[in-house]
Amino acid sequence: MARRPLPSILSSRPTLVRGRDLARSAADGASDVLHPVITIARGMRRQAAWTGGWWGRTPKDRRGPALLLAAAGAVVLVMMPYGPLLAVVAVIASAAWMGRDRGAGAAAGPGEAEAGRLQSLYEALVPYLSDPADPAPLYTYDGSWAKAFTSFDFEGGRLVRLHLRYPAYFTDGEAESRARVEQLLHAKAGRGREYRFDWNEEENHLTLTALPPLPTDIVAQRFVTAPGETVLGFTDAEAVPRTVPVAGGGEETRDAPPVVWRTGSRSTEPHLLALGQPGTGTTSLLRSIALQSLVHGDVVIVDGSGTGEYACLTGRPGVLAVEDGLLGASATLEWAAHETERRLIAVNRARQEGRPVDEDARRPLWILVDRPTALSQLALAEGRPDPQLLLDVPLRHGRAASVAVAVADQLDATEALAPVVIAHTRARVVLGRLAPEHVEAVLGAAQRTTPAAEVPPGRGYARLGTGPVLRLQVPSTPDPYDDEAPAPHREAVLTLLPGSLPPAAEPDPAPLPAPEPSSLRKDAVIRTVADLT
What we know:
Keywords: Membrane, Transmembrane, Transmembrane helix. This protein has 533 residues and is α/β, with parallel strands linked by helices.
């Protein structure tokens, strides 16, 4: 039997194709013609959504004044010439702007590699930020990072900033829970850099920021500070509210955020304790403090290591003593105790008599002690009193007498530090490569950043009193008599020494004559070395 052909209405495929093309062309033409209307309608819908969201966020006690203000504005518009017309034009223009096509912005999103890194980071957080009992979990194994990561930034293919949300039941108040998440983010975001974690417990947000390395080209120099202020080093720009001009490795001058230690009668942390391993820069820190302190006051230096690191300061104006032996150090510290008592008596008498305090009692005095535990061991071996106990009076009463004490020692000798030293040094500095738990043990608070991959000399953390833990880079202040130190750094220290002339003002290259050694004050009570034996 022959097959009958199909009806023409069913077998005419070209006619259907032409009809579909005509319909598509008509729809495209209509969309082109009505594109302004569609854009304005989309913008009005977004405006209405924004207005509803704003009304929902506005407290109830402020809604009445807001309505009154809106009504007053409407009345003013109606009474103005062409006011309603201008209002309609403004609304349409804003709707057209809000309803514009934002396809270009969507195309600027993360690339394929960046999206893959975000997705892997999201999946790694699932075991830590999810709960099987959660009916609508924010972190699931088959979920997407787009609903948890609100903003992010990449630089050179590496994640430099990430803002994420986490569920409210996550125990963000527990240090162990935070540490697990921070360790995971540090590993997944890329090691070799320092990251800062800002936890917003109120809104359940966490911001991860990759921190740039701190500058290591800042050398010792005259910093722009007020009397009683000492620059310990430099930190992140977001961590402190001020900057000071500094000169780096070249001739250019830039602004850098300093960590300023304030001393004096109004200071809440008048004494400093710096700890670190050998070669981490604690001696350079004390040398930097000495150079800055000599601008406004006098300095007494006790070098327990006996290596001559402070020989450049011997006999300089304002340097009352530089001692590195047990007997000389004990005599100097005892003088400092009697000097503190004398100043307290002078201040008390001046206040009782209603007159200004004498200049010799108001001039700041810094007592810098390096490696006191080494002197304590020598004293113990010889059966003498511990020299650290002589710091009791300056530490307890130095704030009122304009006396500041800075102690530096090795981290493994903290058990030998006297309790009075630990109790009264509220400004703390720790230098070198240390575990986070060691930093917390010294500073009394956990650091907000991950450990650094490379730790140059002078790199560490600082905490002043009850303030936050700050990253710190001490300015390079080497011994000017150390031939292994860079020549520009040694010249910078030599220029800052009292009694020295700047290189441009030197009449000839011949070395300057050493100034006459300055002795301790005559009005102080000092026991001689013979009395100590």
